[in-house]
Amino acid sequence: MNQSSVSLVKPGGKLESATNVEKREDVINEEQLLPNTTIVTHCIYRNDTETLKRCFEDPTSPYKDQMNELLNQRDDDGKSPLDVAAILERTDIVKMLIQFGADVNIFTSKGYSCLHYAALWGRLEVLQILVENGGNLYQRNIHGETPRDAALRYNQTESATYLELAG
Question: Which residues form the signal peptide (predicted)?
Fold first, then answer.
């Protein structure tokens, strides 16, 4: 989407032109995104729950129509937004992504799921959220490891213990 195609409706129904969009503090244009990110991953890296929520819920958001598509879109490293949020331990964003429909059981070409990433990085609170929302405890990566096995390989004993008890 280029900036000239953006139009927003201000409170009261007045149409705001694209040239005024960059003056709005609550709108992030594509040119302002971190390199190689979508608006979703940009918000994850910045831990910006407010903007992310607005992109999903605000009908005037220039990103509103593409948010569902971006929920499970993989980055150049093959990671989904949920994978990135799990690694960075963005618990509020993990909850929000799940609330808006992110798939907790998609996995990379190497078989890693967000549960694997949370386990091997020792993100216990994220693990709990993912398990409570149907995360597959038995998904195996290309090394034949479940999330618990990955946690053990990286000496994340708390994560491994939690996953053992959850199974």
Answer: none
